[in-house]
Model the fold of this input.
Amino acid sequence: MKRIVILVVLVTIAGVAGVVVRSSCKVAELRGLVSHSNAADVREEIRQKYELSPGARVELTGLNGAVKIETSDTKTAEVYVERTAGTQEALDRRKVTIEADANSLRIRGEKSDSGFFSRFFGSSAVERVTLKLPRQIALFAKGVNGAFVTTDIEGPVDVAGINGRVQIRSAAGRATFKGINGSMVVGLTKLDMDGVSLSGINGNIELQLASDVNADFDARGMNGQVISELPNVEIDKTKRGSYWARIGSGGTGITAKGINGNIRFTDLRGSV
Done:
Protein backbone atom coordinates (compact mmCIF):
# COMPACT_ATOMS: atom_id res chain seq x y z
CA MET A 1 0.00 0.00 0.00
CA LYS A 2 2.84 2.37 0.85
CA ARG A 3 4.45 1.69 -2.52
CA ILE A 4 1.21 2.55 -4.30
CA VAL A 5 0.93 5.88 -2.45
CA ILE A 6 4.53 6.78 -3.30
CA LEU A 7 3.92 5.91 -6.96
CA VAL A 8 0.82 8.13 -7.09
CA VAL A 9 2.75 11.01 -5.54
CA LEU A 10 5.58 10.65 -8.05
CA VAL A 11 3.16 10.56 -10.98
CA THR A 12 1.41 13.68 -9.67
CA ILE A 13 4.68 15.57 -9.28
CA ALA A 14 5.74 14.60 -12.80
CA GLY A 15 2.42 15.79 -14.18
CA VAL A 16 2.66 19.14 -12.42
CA ALA A 17 6.23 19.58 -13.67
CA GLY A 18 5.07 18.87 -17.21
CA VAL A 19 2.35 21.50 -16.96
CA VAL A 20 4.85 24.04 -15.67
CA VAL A 21 7.26 23.28 -18.51
CA ARG A 22 4.51 23.53 -21.11
CA SER A 23 3.27 26.80 -19.56
CA SER A 24 6.79 28.20 -19.59
CA CYS A 25 7.10 27.30 -23.27
CA LYS A 26 3.84 29.10 -24.04
CA VAL A 27 5.02 32.19 -22.17
CA ALA A 28 8.30 32.13 -24.09
CA GLU A 29 6.40 31.79 -27.38
CA LEU A 30 4.16 34.76 -26.46
CA ARG A 31 7.16 36.87 -25.54
CA GLY A 32 8.74 36.04 -28.88
CA LEU A 33 5.56 37.14 -30.62
CA VAL A 34 5.42 40.61 -29.08
CA SER A 35 9.14 41.43 -28.97
CA HIS A 36 10.70 43.46 -31.76
CA SER A 37 14.23 44.23 -32.77
CA ASN A 38 15.30 47.86 -32.54
CA ALA A 39 17.18 47.57 -35.80
CA ALA A 40 15.34 48.61 -38.96
CA ASP A 41 15.33 45.56 -41.23
CA VAL A 42 13.28 47.01 -44.11
CA ARG A 43 14.10 50.24 -45.91
CA GLU A 44 12.52 52.22 -48.74
CA GLU A 45 13.61 55.46 -50.44
CA ILE A 46 11.54 58.03 -52.32
CA ARG A 47 13.27 60.64 -54.49
CA GLN A 48 11.34 63.26 -56.45
CA LYS A 49 11.93 66.67 -58.07
CA TYR A 50 9.40 69.39 -58.80
CA GLU A 51 9.43 72.96 -60.10
CA LEU A 52 7.76 75.49 -57.78
CA SER A 53 6.66 79.07 -58.37
CA PRO A 54 7.79 81.81 -55.95
CA GLY A 55 5.56 81.80 -52.86
CA ALA A 56 4.36 78.21 -53.39
CA ARG A 57 2.78 76.51 -50.38
CA VAL A 58 4.68 73.56 -48.89
CA GLU A 59 2.69 71.30 -46.56
CA LEU A 60 4.01 68.49 -44.36
CA THR A 61 1.51 66.57 -42.25
CA GLY A 62 1.27 63.36 -40.23
CA LEU A 63 4.94 62.36 -40.45
CA ASN A 64 6.48 59.87 -38.02
CA GLY A 65 10.06 61.10 -38.07
CA ALA A 66 12.35 64.08 -38.34
CA VAL A 67 12.11 66.76 -41.04
CA LYS A 68 15.09 68.70 -42.36
CA ILE A 69 14.75 71.53 -44.89
CA GLU A 70 17.52 73.35 -46.73
CA THR A 71 16.61 76.40 -48.81
CA SER A 72 18.44 78.33 -51.53
CA ASP A 73 17.88 80.59 -54.55
CA THR A 74 16.25 77.95 -56.72
CA LYS A 75 12.91 77.03 -58.27
CA THR A 76 13.43 73.31 -57.86
CA ALA A 77 12.14 71.28 -54.93
CA GLU A 78 14.07 68.08 -54.21
CA VAL A 79 12.28 65.54 -52.03
CA TYR A 80 14.00 62.64 -50.29
CA VAL A 81 12.06 60.36 -47.95
CA GLU A 82 13.72 57.44 -46.18
CA ARG A 83 11.22 54.95 -44.76
CA THR A 84 12.30 52.22 -42.34
CA ALA A 85 10.56 49.52 -40.31
CA GLY A 86 11.25 46.20 -38.62
CA THR A 87 9.18 44.24 -41.16
CA GLN A 88 7.66 44.75 -44.59
CA GLU A 89 4.21 44.38 -43.05
CA ALA A 90 4.96 47.28 -40.67
CA LEU A 91 6.23 49.37 -43.57
CA ASP A 92 3.06 48.66 -45.55
CA ARG A 93 0.84 49.79 -42.67
CA ARG A 94 1.85 53.39 -43.34
CA LYS A 95 1.78 55.31 -46.57
CA VAL A 96 3.50 58.51 -47.63
CA THR A 97 1.82 60.44 -50.41
CA ILE A 98 3.41 63.28 -52.36
CA GLU A 99 1.38 65.68 -54.49
CA ALA A 100 2.81 68.66 -56.31
CA ASP A 101 2.11 71.32 -58.91
CA ALA A 102 3.64 74.72 -59.62
CA ASN A 103 1.89 76.34 -56.65
CA SER A 104 2.08 73.65 -53.96
CA LEU A 105 3.96 70.66 -52.60
CA ARG A 106 2.16 68.34 -50.18
CA ILE A 107 3.82 65.47 -48.30
CA ARG A 108 1.46 63.50 -46.09
CA GLY A 109 1.92 60.41 -43.93
CA GLU A 110 -1.11 58.26 -43.32
CA LYS A 111 -1.89 54.85 -41.82
CA SER A 112 -3.39 52.17 -44.02
CA ASP A 113 -6.09 49.77 -42.81
CA SER A 114 -4.81 46.79 -40.82
CA GLY A 115 -6.07 44.27 -38.29
CA PHE A 116 -6.19 44.74 -34.54
CA PHE A 117 -3.23 42.47 -33.75
CA SER A 118 -1.08 44.11 -36.43
CA ARG A 119 -1.74 47.54 -34.99
CA PHE A 120 -1.34 46.44 -31.36
CA PHE A 121 1.68 44.14 -31.56
CA GLY A 122 3.39 45.43 -34.71
CA SER A 123 6.17 48.00 -34.86
CA SER A 124 5.69 51.40 -36.49
CA ALA A 125 7.36 52.59 -39.65
CA VAL A 126 9.48 55.73 -39.48
CA GLU A 127 9.99 58.26 -42.25
CA ARG A 128 12.80 60.81 -42.33
CA VAL A 129 12.15 63.66 -44.72
CA THR A 130 14.88 65.81 -46.26
CA LEU A 131 13.89 68.66 -48.56
CA LYS A 132 15.81 71.14 -50.67
CA LEU A 133 13.46 74.03 -51.41
CA PRO A 134 13.30 77.60 -52.70
CA ARG A 135 13.51 80.25 -49.99
CA GLN A 136 10.33 82.00 -51.16
CA ILE A 137 7.65 79.62 -49.92
CA ALA A 138 4.72 79.49 -47.52
CA LEU A 139 5.60 76.71 -45.07
CA PHE A 140 2.93 74.69 -43.23
CA ALA A 141 3.73 71.73 -40.96
CA LYS A 142 1.40 69.82 -38.67
CA GLY A 143 1.69 66.53 -36.79
CA VAL A 144 5.39 65.74 -37.04
CA ASN A 145 6.77 63.19 -34.57
CA GLY A 146 10.40 64.30 -34.60
CA ALA A 147 12.68 67.30 -34.88
CA PHE A 148 11.73 70.00 -37.38
CA VAL A 149 14.71 71.96 -38.70
CA THR A 150 14.87 74.44 -41.57
CA THR A 151 17.11 77.17 -42.89
CA ASP A 152 15.91 80.54 -44.26
CA ILE A 153 12.23 80.99 -45.16
CA GLU A 154 11.05 84.11 -46.99
CA GLY A 155 7.32 83.82 -46.43
CA PRO A 156 4.75 82.84 -43.81
CA VAL A 157 5.49 79.96 -41.44
CA ASP A 158 2.80 77.90 -39.70
CA VAL A 159 4.04 75.05 -37.48
CA ALA A 160 1.77 73.00 -35.17
CA GLY A 161 1.71 69.69 -33.34
CA ILE A 162 5.44 68.96 -33.35
CA ASN A 163 6.81 66.34 -30.95
CA GLY A 164 10.46 67.40 -31.02
CA ARG A 165 12.66 70.45 -31.20
CA VAL A 166 11.90 73.19 -33.71
CA GLN A 167 14.69 75.21 -35.28
CA ILE A 168 14.21 77.84 -37.97
CA ARG A 169 17.34 79.74 -38.93
CA SER A 170 15.41 82.77 -40.16
CA ALA A 171 11.84 83.68 -41.06
CA ALA A 172 10.55 86.81 -42.75
CA GLY A 173 6.81 87.42 -42.45
CA ARG A 174 3.98 86.00 -40.38
CA ALA A 175 4.94 83.12 -38.08
CA THR A 176 2.67 80.91 -35.98
CA PHE A 177 3.80 78.14 -33.62
CA LYS A 178 1.27 76.03 -31.72
CA GLY A 179 1.40 72.81 -29.72
CA ILE A 180 5.15 72.22 -29.71
CA ASN A 181 6.54 69.58 -27.34
CA GLY A 182 10.19 70.55 -27.41
CA SER A 183 12.58 73.49 -27.36
CA MET A 184 12.48 76.16 -30.07
CA VAL A 185 15.06 78.40 -31.74
CA VAL A 186 13.61 80.83 -34.28
CA GLY A 187 15.40 83.62 -36.13
CA LEU A 188 13.27 86.63 -37.11
CA THR A 189 14.56 88.97 -39.81
CA LYS A 190 11.33 90.78 -40.63
CA LEU A 191 7.79 90.89 -39.25
CA ASP A 192 4.65 91.70 -41.20
CA MET A 193 1.45 93.16 -39.74
CA ASP A 194 0.24 89.73 -38.50
CA GLY A 195 3.35 89.32 -36.35
CA VAL A 196 4.39 86.19 -34.46
CA SER A 197 2.17 83.93 -32.34
CA LEU A 198 3.41 81.32 -29.84
CA SER A 199 0.98 79.11 -27.95
CA GLY A 200 1.02 75.79 -26.12
CA ILE A 201 4.80 75.39 -26.12
CA ASN A 202 6.34 72.85 -23.73
CA GLY A 203 9.98 73.89 -23.80
CA ASN A 204 12.37 76.85 -23.81
CA ILE A 205 12.11 79.36 -26.65
CA GLU A 206 14.93 81.43 -28.12
CA LEU A 207 13.90 84.25 -30.44
CA GLN A 208 16.88 85.50 -32.42
CA LEU A 209 16.07 89.02 -33.64
CA ALA A 210 17.64 91.06 -36.41
CA SER A 211 18.85 94.48 -35.28
CA ASP A 212 16.10 96.37 -37.17
CA VAL A 213 13.17 94.33 -35.82
CA ASN A 214 10.68 96.50 -33.91
CA ALA A 215 7.83 94.85 -32.02
CA ASP A 216 5.64 94.82 -28.93
CA PHE A 217 5.78 91.57 -26.96
CA ASP A 218 2.92 90.29 -24.80
CA ALA A 219 3.04 86.99 -22.86
CA ARG A 220 0.28 85.48 -20.71
CA GLY A 221 -0.03 82.22 -18.81
CA MET A 222 3.71 81.60 -18.67
CA ASN A 223 5.40 79.07 -16.45
CA GLY A 224 8.84 80.56 -16.93
CA GLN A 225 10.73 83.81 -17.38
CA VAL A 226 11.33 86.28 -20.19
CA ILE A 227 15.01 87.18 -20.57
CA SER A 228 16.75 89.49 -23.02
CA GLU A 229 20.37 89.67 -24.10
CA LEU A 230 19.58 92.69 -26.32
CA PRO A 231 20.12 96.31 -25.22
CA ASN A 232 17.04 97.61 -27.05
CA VAL A 233 14.50 95.42 -25.21
CA GLU A 234 12.61 96.68 -22.17
CA ILE A 235 10.84 93.96 -20.16
CA ASP A 236 8.06 94.58 -17.65
CA LYS A 237 6.55 91.79 -15.55
CA THR A 238 2.99 93.01 -15.09
CA LYS A 239 1.80 90.14 -12.88
CA ARG A 240 2.54 86.50 -12.20
CA GLY A 241 2.84 84.59 -15.45
CA SER A 242 2.51 87.73 -17.58
CA TYR A 243 5.19 89.82 -19.29
CA TRP A 244 5.27 92.80 -21.60
CA ALA A 245 8.24 94.08 -23.55
CA ARG A 246 9.06 96.70 -26.16
CA ILE A 247 11.58 95.70 -28.77
CA GLY A 248 13.26 98.65 -30.45
CA SER A 249 10.63 101.29 -31.14
CA GLY A 250 7.75 98.81 -30.84
CA GLY A 251 5.11 97.99 -33.40
CA THR A 252 4.15 94.56 -34.72
CA GLY A 253 2.94 92.14 -32.09
CA ILE A 254 4.72 89.06 -30.79
CA THR A 255 2.31 87.16 -28.54
CA ALA A 256 2.91 84.16 -26.30
CA LYS A 257 0.31 82.11 -24.43
CA GLY A 258 0.55 78.92 -22.40
CA ILE A 259 4.34 78.61 -22.42
CA ASN A 260 5.95 76.02 -20.12
CA GLY A 261 9.52 77.30 -20.28
CA ASN A 262 11.62 80.44 -20.66
CA ILE A 263 11.62 82.89 -23.55
CA ARG A 264 14.96 84.46 -24.42
CA PHE A 265 15.67 87.31 -26.88
CA THR A 266 19.09 87.10 -28.53
CA ASP A 267 20.93 88.73 -31.44
CA LEU A 268 20.42 86.99 -34.76
CA ARG A 269 23.80 88.12 -36.09
CA GLY A 270 25.63 86.71 -33.10
CA SER A 271 23.88 83.37 -33.53
CA VAL A 272 24.64 82.78 -37.21
About this structure: DSSP finds four helices and 21 strands in the chain.
